[in-house]
Backbone:
């Protein structure tokens, strides 16, 4: 029962990290 919860947590963390990295890249691109 703990495995699915761990997977969900890991997936959410990965998604957040990916979104943050994408946001940083977009900001860098927009900046001159």
Residues:
């Amino acid at each position: 029962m703990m495995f699915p919860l761990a997977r969900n947590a890991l997936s959410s963390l990965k998604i957040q990290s990916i979104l943050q990295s994408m946001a940083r890249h977009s900001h860098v691109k927009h900046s001159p």
Q: What stands out?
A: The radius of gyration is 14 Å.
